[in-house]
Amino acid sequence: MGGNRSDAAPLTFTYVDLIQAMDNATDWVRANDIQPAGLPTSYDATPPSNIDVIVIDRQYGNAEDPFCDQAWATSGTSGGIMGLTTCNSINSSNQCQSADVRYNNNWTFDVGTSAERHLACHENGHAIGLKHPVSSAEMFGQGCMNFGTGEVNYTSHDRGHIAAAF
C-alpha cells in the first residue's frame, strides 16, 4: 500500500473553487473518515508548494473540456466517471506525495448529500493510498472504496491499511 504522506505532518488539503456541497462533503470525510482512521488532516486555503491533496471540481466531460479524454458522467443518472484521483509526484519511497482529487459537477449537481459524501470518501481514499477491493475478504462492510455501495465510510480493512501505512 503506497500511502500519500512523506513526512510526519498532517495530510494537508486545499480546495480549488469547490461548490459548497462538495466542500462540505470533503470536510465531512476528513473529519469522520480519514482522521478517525488515524491520519490527521489540515486545511490550507493558501497552500505551500508541498501540498498533499488538491481537491478540484468542474463540469468535466463537456465537448470543449474533455479532461484526460475520459468518459465523464453527464448527469447524476448517467454512466461515466464521477470523480478521478491522480498522483502529481512520487517520493523516494515510491509513494504518492501529492494528489489531485477531481469531482465531476455534472454528476454531483443533483445527487444529494449521501452520494456527495460517498464520492468524496472514495476519491480521497485513493488520495491516501487506498484501492478498490479485489476480493470478498476485503469487502466486509461494503465501504466507500467499493464504489456503488452508497457507503460513506472506510471498512475495517481500509482503516487497517491506513494505520499500517502511517
The backbone outline, from C-alpha atoms, is globular
Number of strands: 5
Give the strand content. 15-25%
What is the percent of helical residues? 25-40%
Task: Encode the helix/strand succession as letters.
Answer: EHEEEEHHH
Strand order in space, largest sheet: 2-1-3-5-4
Query: Biggest sheet: strands, sense, closure?
Result: 5 strands, mixed
Can you tell me the CATH class? Alpha Beta
**CATH architecture descriptor text:** 3-Layer(aba) Sandwich
CATH superfamily: Collagenase (Catalytic Domain)
Number of domains: 1
Would you tell me which CATH topology applies? Collagenase (Catalytic Domain)
H/I helix tally = 4
C-alpha Rg (nearest Å) = 15 Å
The overall pLDDT average reads: 84
Protein name: Matrixin family metalloprotease
GO molecular function: metallopeptidase activity
Structure characterization notes:
The protein is an alpha/beta fold and 166 residues long. It has one domain (11-132): 3-Layer(aba) Sandwich (Collagenase (Catalytic Domain)), CATH 3.40.390. The protein has helices spanning 20-34, 105-108, 113-127, 156-165; strands spanning 11-16, 41-43, 53-58, 83-90, 96-104. Helix 1 (20-34) crosses helix 3. GO terms for molecular function: metallopeptidase activity. It comes from Nocardioides faecalis. This is Matrixin family metalloprotease.
